[in-house]
Structure formats: structure tokens, C-alpha cells
Amino acid sequence: MGKGGAAGEGAHPGREALAYADALHNLARYLTGNGPDAEDLVQETYPRALQAANQFAPGTNLKAWLFRILRNTFIDQYRRRRIDPTVGGLDTVDPVAQGPAPEDWLRDDIDLDRLRNVVAEEIGQALLQLSEEARTVSLLDLEGQTETEVAAILGCAVGTVKSRLARARETLRQRLQDYPR
Amino acid sequence: MECQGARLHLVDAQRGRLRPDLEGTLRAHLATCAGCARVAAAEQVLTDILERRLPSTRPPSR
Predict the structure, then answer these.
(1) What pTM did the predictor assign?
(2) How many angstroms separate the Cα of A36 from the Cα of each of A66, A103, A120, A127?
(3) pLDDT of A24-76, one tens digit each?
(4) Nearest C-alpha of chain B: how many angstroms from A10?
(5) H or E element in which residue A79 lies
(6) Which residues of A touch B55 (CB under 8 A)?
(7) Per the count of CB atoms within 10 A, which of A17, A74, A113, A136 is most buried?
(8) ipTM over 0.90
(9) Of A101, A138, A146, the CB nearest to B17
């Protein structure tokens, strides 16, 4: 998975935007849960980005800007389908209310070894089981976006990103360790 | 630093994004709190497996 978010692109984001097609598709794949919908989402994202090109501030993070457009497009698509992806989402995942404290299920090195031994398919499935917001925050963090950039993409406060990321990762750790072997 | 605050900073610490003074405070907390130290170790493992093993999808070639 790619790291960082190139800043300092030129005045028009058109050509440079294509360099982020893989990163956009990766996020789209984990947002939509399947390849064809991911393709549709990316294909709808690029024309929107071109239409909004005059709103892109040269020298700012083009990758983060594209992620924001893709995520907004995803939400718009869901609204068109009359499904709200945030209902029952991350904010309902309260590790304190739903399960034991993290250290209770991280009792010893055996638990850490279980986490180390998860396989790719289990990681992908665990990620897809997260709410849309939790998936987005986790994936953007893995893409190297800073919390400030993620906050701009999601349209929320940096502190909100920090707490959502911590909760999402805690949920991921718990699910991966609980995966049946 | 309390446990709840410490755990919010674990990812930032991994990414090298913490202010030096905050990082020092976090390290001091981890040295004395076994629960947070275990969570920190698990966070490191999670980052490692996500970065190395999460299937990275690519658009189909045309």
C-alpha cells in the first residue's frame, strides 16, 4: 500500500491525478466491498475532480483532495440508493460498552502471536466488517495521510479523527485475534 | 498521562508525529503501565500486518 501524499502538484490536477488511480481504487474497493462498484466509484470520481479542478489549491495535497472527492461520491451514491452508510457505523462501536478492555484480551504473548499470524484474507474481511467511517479512517491512515488531512477529507475535527482511528484499530485488533483458527 | 489519553497517541507515536515532550510523557507512561504497554505492542503488530498483508487491490487492466 502506498505511503505519503504528494504535495506541490501543478496548477491543474488533471494529469497528476491519474498517478493516484491505484490508491483511489484501493480505497474504493474497501469502501464498496466489491470490484465492479469500486470501478464505478473511481470512474465517477475522476470526472467530478476535473469539474472541480478550479477548486484545487496548487501546492496542497492532491491525493487527499482526490480521496475527499471519492469519499463524497461514495456517500452520494449511497444516498441515491437510499442507504446511509454511516447508520449503525463507527460511532456505535464502543469498545468499553461492547467488550472487555483491550488489555483483557491481550493477556500475553500468545495473543500477540495470534495477531501476528493472521493471513491476508482475514485482514481484508476484518476491514470490510468495519463501518464505512472506520474503514475510511484506517485506510487513509495506511495511505500515509496525516490526521489533519484525514480530517479535511472527512470534514470533521482532528480530535475526532484521532479517536475514530484509535477505536477502529482497537476493533480490528480484537476481531483479528478472535478470528477462528 | 492517563491510559485513555496514552492510547489515543499510540498511532501518532508510531508514525513519528508526536511532539517530543508528548512522546516523552507517553514513553514514561508505557514504562509504568503494563496494560498500555501491551496495547502499544499490539498496535505495532497491527500496523505491521496491515502494511505487509492487507490485500492491495488494483483496477483491472484494460
Answers:
(1) 0.74
(2) 19, 40, 21, 18
(3) 999 999 999 888 899 999 999 999 998 888 888 888 889 999 999 999 999 88
(4) 25
(5) helix A62-80
(6) 120-121, 123-124
(7) A136
(8) no
(9) A146
Task: Looking at the complex, report in whole angstroms how far the Cα of residue A43 sits from the nearest Cα belonging to chain B.
Answer: 11
What pLDDT, in 10s, does the model give residues A134-156?
999 999 998 889 999 999 999 99
Whole-number Å distance between alpha carbons of A62 and A16: 8
pLDDT in tens, A114-139: 777 777 778 888 899 999 999 999 99
Q: Which residues of A touch B36 (CB under 8 A)?
A: 103
Residue A57 CB contacts under 8 Å (≥ 6 apart), including other chains: none
Q: Which residues of B touch chain A, with CB atoms under 8 Å apart?
A: 7-8, 10-12, 17, 34-36, 38-39, 41-43, 45-46, 48-51, 53-60
